[in-house]
Structure formats: C-alpha cells, structure tokens
Amino acid sequence: MTEAIKLKAKDYKSEVKPIWCPGCGHFSVLNAITKAMAGLGINKDNTVLVSGIGCSSRLPAYVDSYGFHGVHGRGLAIAQGLKVARPDLTVLALGGDGDGFSIGGNHFIHACRRNVNMTYIAMDNEVYGMTKGQASPTTPMDWDHSKLTPHGPGVRPFKPAALALASGAPWIARGYSGNPNQMAKLIAEAVAHPGFSFLHVMSQCITFCPEQTDWKAIVTEHEGPALANADEAAKVFLHEDGFQTGLLYCEPRPSWPPVSDKPVDGNALAGLAASFRV
Amino acid sequence: MSKRHLCIAITGAGGAGVISCGELLLQAWAHEGGRGLLRKAYGPQIRGGESAALLKLTDDERYTAASHYDLVVALDWDNFSRFEDEIRLGPRSWVLCDEADELPASVLAARPTVLQLPFAELASTCHAEGRVNMLVLGVLGRLLGLPVGSMVELAAQKLARKPQAYRDAATACIEGGASRPMACDLPVPPTAATGACYMSGNQAAGLGALEAGIRFVAAYPITPASDVLEWMAGGLEQLGGQLLQAEDELAAINMAIGAAFGGVPAFTATSGPGLALMTESIGLAVASETPVTILNVMRGGPSTGIPTKSEQSDLNIALNGLHGDAPHLVLAPLDIADCVFTTGWAVQLAQQLQTAAIVLSDQFIGQSTAIVSEPRRYIPATAAPATPAEGAYLRYKLTSSGVSTLAAPGDAGHRFTADGLEHNENGTPSARQSDHQRQLAKRQDKLADFGFGDDWAQVNGSGPLALLCFGSSSAAVNEAADLLAERGSPARVISLRLLAPLQTAALRAAVEGCSAVVVVEQNHSGQLFRYLKGHADFPQAVHSYAMAGPVPLAPEAIAQAVTEMINP
Q: What is the pLDDT of residues B73-92, one digit of tens each?
C-alpha cells in the first residue's frame, strides 16, 4: 500500500494548476492543508474536500484527494450529507466569505449548530474576487473600491467567530495566510477535533484589496489555552479586531448524529412491506 | 356499465377526528376483504379548520375521487359548507346530521333523505368522555355490516398511546353507535378479495424508495410531502440508514447530493415551492453526474397556492426548471400502488444513469389511503459486470453508452473532483468548446439511448380515439374511457409514467390508427399538451382538456368534453 510510505506535503497536491492571482493568500491555505494532511499521514482515498463557488472554492481540484466543487453557498450542505452518510471519511468543507457568510449563511449557522464531525475552513479576504471585486459580508463599511457600492457598503461587517459561537460551534480558530505553519497546525487540530471545527482564515486578496498587505502588522497570536467558556468567548468575539490568530475557543460537545447502538435488522425491508398488509 | 361503489363523506372541524373515523372504517372494511379509497381534505388550519374524510368503497381498484355521495355525515354544518364544491348530493343521497333544521341551501336543493341523530348527546350517554367520531364509526360500521369487534380492535391499536379512559370511551362509543339501527339503505359493494395492502401513496413511494436501495434521506418539511419523510425516518432507522433534517430545501438537495457522492443512494421529498428552491442544485446533480431522486408531491400552485389540495401543475418546472441544457429523468406514478413501482424504478434509473430523477406524485394519491392488491415492484435486469477501465481512471470518460464508472470516496486510486463547472473527461474544469460539446452530448445520449422498456406508459383499451394523460389522472381518464365506450366512442388510454426522456417513437406507435388525440391533465394551462405538441409531432388532431385543481378530475366531465371535441 502506497500510503504506508510517508508522504510529503507536495505529494498531496494534484497536477491541476491553480487559477489564483500571484500573491493570493489562498496558495498559503493550500500549502497549509497539504502540510497538515502530510503531518496527519492522512489517506488520500478516504478524504474529501468539498466547496461552493468562488476563488477559494477552486481548492479541492488542487488537492490529490476526492473532491466536490458544488454550487455557490452550498458546500457545507454537501459536506454534511456526505459525512452523515459516510462517517468513515475525513471531510473538509472550504469556501470564501461570500460563499459561506452571504449566500451560504444559513447553512453556516446550522452547520455550527448541528455539530457534524467535520472541518470548515472559511478563507476570508473580505471581497468577492471571482466576480471582480464587490463588497462581501466582511468588507469594512467604508471600503469604496467597488463600482457596485462606490461609497462603501455602509453596513457593519459580519463577525464570523461571534456568529459561529452563538450558533453552537464547539471549536473556533483563526489563521492568517501570512503564517502557513500556524495554519497547518490548526488544520491538523481541526481535523482531529471530534465535532464541527471552524477555522476562519484571513487570506489576503492582493488584486482587489492591496491594502490587506497591512494585515501582517496587525495580526496577533492568541496567548495561552483556548477559551472553554462561551460567555467569555462571546465577549472576546464581539469586541476583538478580528486579527488574533490561533485556537480561540474549544468546548467539545457530542457530535451529531450519535453513533447508533441498534443492530441493523436484516429483515427490516420485508417487515416494512409486511406492515402494510391487511 | 354501472359502477358498484358507495361514497361516504364525513365532515367536521379539524381535530374532531373525522379522518380517524374514516381510516378506521376503511381498515375494518379492508379486513372484510373490501376495496376502497379514503381521500382526505383539509383546510389550511392545524386545529379548528375544516376537515373531511371522503370514502369510496368499491369492488375494484380503479380509484377515482368520488364526485357524488351516497351518504354525508355532517358533524356540523359550518364545516360542511367549506366542502360544498366537492361534496355533491342528489335525491337518492342520505344525510346524517345532528342539526336537521339547519340544512344549508345547497343540501336542501339536492333533496336528500335526512336522518337526524344527536351525536354529542349519544356519545356522552355511551361514556362520560365519549367521542362523536367513534360513535359515527359504530353507526357507519353497522350500515356496512362490519363486525363490531374488528372496529374496536383497530381503534385500540390506533389509540394505543392514549390513556385507558380514552380507549374505553372509544370502545363504548363504537359499540353504542353499532347498536343503533338506522333506516338507511345503502348500495354496499360486495367484498371478497383477500391479500390486500392498506397504504397511502406517500407511504408507497417511501417503501419503493427504500426497497430500491435508498439509505440516506435529507428532509425539509412541506405539505403534502412531510408524511413521506416521516414514514421513511422510521424505516431508515431499522435499515441502518440516515435521515438528516435540513435547514431548508437548498440544503436538503445538496445533502442528498453529498451522500450520493459518498456512494449511498440518496433521496429527498418536497412539493412545488421546495422543488423551485432545489432546481439549481438538481442541475448540479446532472452536471456532476451524481445520482439523486426527488419526490415532488404536487399541490395547487403557483407560489404558496393551495398547499393542502392536489394539482398536476409542476410538470413544467420538473421538465424545464433547470438552467442550461440539463437532461434528467421525470417520472409520474399512476396511482397509489404504482407509487411503489415508479419511485423504485426512478431510484434505480437515477443510480444506473448517474443523474437526477424527479418523481411527480400529488396530494391526491400521496395523501389518500387505499386498499390495494400487493403492489408490483420494479425488478431490474441483471446488469452485466462492469469491465474494468483501462489506463488511468477518468470520472467523466466518454463511452458508447454515455455512462462512465462512478467511483466513491474510499475506492483506492479513483480520486477525482466532481464538478458543476464544465469539465473534461478527467473532471478538470474546462471552458473549451470541445469539452463542452462532448460532455453535453454524453449527458444527453446516456438518457436518449437507454432502453426504458415497456413501463414508459400504461396503455389500456383500443379504439380510434386516444386519451393521453400522466400520473394520477390515469384513473379518472380510464373511467372516462369506460363512459365513452358505453356511449359508442371506444378510446384507448395512454397513461405516461416516464415523461422525460419522452419515448417519442413508442408514443407515436401507441396512437397509430387513432383519428384524434385528447390530452387530459389537472392544471390550468395544458402543460402536458404543450409539451407533447412540442416534442411528439402527432399527425392526428390533438385536443387539450386541462382542468385546474383542487377538485379532482371528474370522469363524467372529461367524457362530455371529449365527446364535444371529437363531434364538433
């Protein structure tokens, strides 16, 4: 079995060339994912990367595992259906801020709440890149670079970590595309967490938001252990600047669905048909 | 040919138990070897609205909705009045009521024989907690000659979770009602057949899906499809499958697609508004060649429409709702028992052809319960063993059949990324014209070239006139054909079970020799008529009889309209 040989990060990359712009933060996320897979010694055949639509959602094709590139906003739904049907698989959902927090916002809330044992990596660059630079739910209020909202969106940006917490996500971390080693470590921990793990990655868009290169000056690393209390975490997530990285909150609870202890009844089908007979 | 059937309507307030009364009466009738149908009609309210149990006891299984009633039991007249359009009476009808001096004008005009019975008073005489619906059950059971013990036992089973006093009250009321002779002479049909099943179309569809291998269901509640999902939840638990309640229909269809991608046959059920939300992702199933089956239990539309009542008006969206060129399967069960066959067939076709199948049932067959002979099952032909592909695995490989090998995660060495983006044979996104042309043709040819066999339609009778219909209209159209034959215009009835891909050659052969074709359907705009006009190119004159719901199609009205069309 080839998997017995220790694979390196590059062995987890496919031969498909990314469509991303030079300098895109998503390259760093791809590197971190493959590094984490190598670190975990993960079996490529038993791993599925699922995504929606957007620049970041192209990622599954760039990894040598199974993948599903779905429709806009629905990656989390596909991923949960897959994991519930096939609990033996390692399932990661990926996507951008528009995909996950706008069109897919309802699925994000319910995925946090449902707590299926899988990982969701949201690659947040505060912009719709694939449609050429419109404001997203995480864009600053005064960002006036889009012709669609020439005076800025004028709406308060969304706080993904706070929403995840309020919706019941038991594991919340943040990464930064400028620190792929930390991100790889967080991804490995996320996959190992027995429940829904939400990794929010600040992944810069060099093309539409060149000002995001300034992020490296404001990013901080969370010190100490992750918060394990939702009340404390709520205060942090509502008031933070959104640039502290690391594992921020971890309060494990039983994932869904519970493992059934009922034996499967081999005659169940015949019994169901018979239940209709007069 | 006079039909031997007896139609009984029981109307009352929602929550008054008229549906339970009707169910128990039909079950007891089934135990005596009878045949019959129970149609349930509701107002939109959960409690306090109107509700009607519409029974048709027959000596065969051609279950059309009753249009004329032999007996109406009105627990009160306020609630009856909301069904005046649907419950027709005549001078030979009987009316059983508590308030004989408050008859509505429409009832008086029909001049039925009115029998007065103080329901509430009698029920409280039988038991302090007496229930009117169980008293009526006893009265009606006696009129049908049903054994009291059988009704009592069936009621005890149904009420097993209720407190003892509740069950005692039911028993006392059934016995009290059954001891009450009524001077009412009803045309009770003969009972003889045995070996029957008692099921609703929604249950039958769920059974067909599970028997065909469905082990994952994503569910979002919607009337009138929720009961399919509720029934399947219990079945899946026994089978070791999974049911996931989704946050909306957008999630439900995608969860099903995700499970199917994992190699687990997947299903969801919905109704018009939910189908509309699902259409984008049904296109994803088509493009990514992921098998999935969607049962759409049709109700009155558009928009919220008439959620609790039937109509065949989702044909257009089922056929044409997907954007781009997205060939897929559309099937329609012809009656309650056929829900087992057609849903099972749809699941197996979706799996075999790696595409989406939409099954168009409706509220009439979905939520009606009937006594049916053991339903037919779809038995797939033994598939030839798959030949191992040579060289590297190509998920979307171009093959002579258009079907390529579908691997699932866990299969060693077959890793691929399924994609709704146009792709090449390997699954890599491609915007090249050559890849687009090839993959479009692949997805179309695998359906167009497939041999669907003889089950694409049910063809009955012969004659120079063809009546064409789909799904649940079949029973009413067949009964209309009987009426036309009695009147000297024999007709053949072609009931379409497979709507897409349309079996054009077989359809043209089926109407060969006919001088006229009449397309009959339960919607306003003639959706099937327009579809067939666009695709089948009949040489004959083609007429349309399209009548919107929610009142069921009436055989007599169809026969009259057809006669006028062919003898202008």
A: 999 999 999 898 889 999 99
- Host domain of residue B311: 198-373
Chain B nearest CA to A61, separation (Å): 6
pLDDT at A263: 83
Amino acid type, B500: A
Neighbour count for residue B64 (Cβ, 10 Å): 26
B472 and B363 in a common domain: no
Euclidean distance between CA atoms B488 and B485, whole angstroms = 5
Residue A97 CA to residue A184 CA, distance in Å, equals 20
Q: Are strands B216-219 and B242-245 parallel, antiparallel or unpaired?
A: parallel
Mean pLDDT of A192-218: 97
* Residue B344 belongs to domain with CATH number: 3.40.50.970
Q: Identify whether B382 is part of a domain.
A: no
Span B538-561, mean pLDDT?
95
Helix (H) or strand (E) holding B349: helix B338-353
Question: Does B259 contact A79 at a Cβ distance shorter than 8 Å?
Answer: no
- If one counts the domains in chain B, the total is 4
B187 within a domain of the structure (yes/no)? no
- Least confident range from B49-63, B353-367, B515-529: namely B49-63
Q: Give the integer Cα–Cα distance in Å for B290 and B282.
A: 9
Q: Look at residue B183 and tell me if it is in a domain.
A: no
Q: Cβ of A265 and B429 within 8 Å?
A: no
Q: How far apart are CA B280 and CA B252, in angstroms?
A: 12
Contact A156, A237 (CB under 8 A): no
Check whether residue B236 and residue B302 sit in a common domain.
yes
C-alpha angle B46-B51-B55 in degrees, rounded to nearest 5: 140
With cut-offs at 50, 70 and 90, classify the pLDDT of residue B1. Answer: very low
Q: What pLDDT is recorded for position B384?
A: 65
For B157-166, letters b (16+ CB in 10 Å) and e give eebeeeeeee
Q: What is the DSSP letter of B49?
A: S
In the three-class reduction of DSSP (H, G, I as helix; E, B as strand; rest coil), residue B266 is classed as: strand
Residue B184 lies in a domain: no
Domain residue ranges of chain A, discontinuous segments joined by +: 2-274
CATH number for the domain harbouring residue B131: 3.40.920.10
Judge contact between B377 and B338, C-beta under 8 A. Answer: no
Return all residues near B364 (Cβ < 8 A) that are at least 6 apart. Answer: B39, B65, B310, B472, B552
Taking contacts as CB-CB distances below 8 angstroms, the residues of chain B near A16 are: 428
pLDDT of residue A1: 44
Same domain, B202 and B245: yes
Kindly state whether residues B38 and B160 are assigned to the same domain.
yes
Place of tokens 């008692």: B198
| Average pLDDT of the residues in A120-137 | 97
pLDDT at B2: 47
In a shared domain, residues B10 and B156: yes
Is the distance from CB of B195 to CB of B374 less than 8 angstroms?
Answer: yes
Note whether B99 contacts A: Cβ–Cβ < 8 A. no
Specify the pLDDT at position B381.
75
Over 50: is that where the pLDDT of A5 sits?
A: yes
Contact B258, A85 (CB under 8 A): yes
Tokens 């209209």, located at residue:
B473
Residues of chain B positioned with their CB less than 8 A from the CB of A89: 262, 409-410
Compute the mean pLDDT over every residue in chain B, rounded to the nearest whole number. Answer: 95
The CATH number of A2-274, from 3.40.50.970, 3.30.450.20, 3.40.718.10, 2.40.50.180, is 3.40.50.970
Is the same domain home to B465 and B446?
A: no
Task: Give the Cα-Cα-Cα angle B129, B135, B139 (nearest 5 degrees).
Answer: 165
B197: nearest CB among A70, A85, A276: A276
Q: How many Å lie between the alpha carbon of B113 and the closest alpha carbon of chain A? A: 34
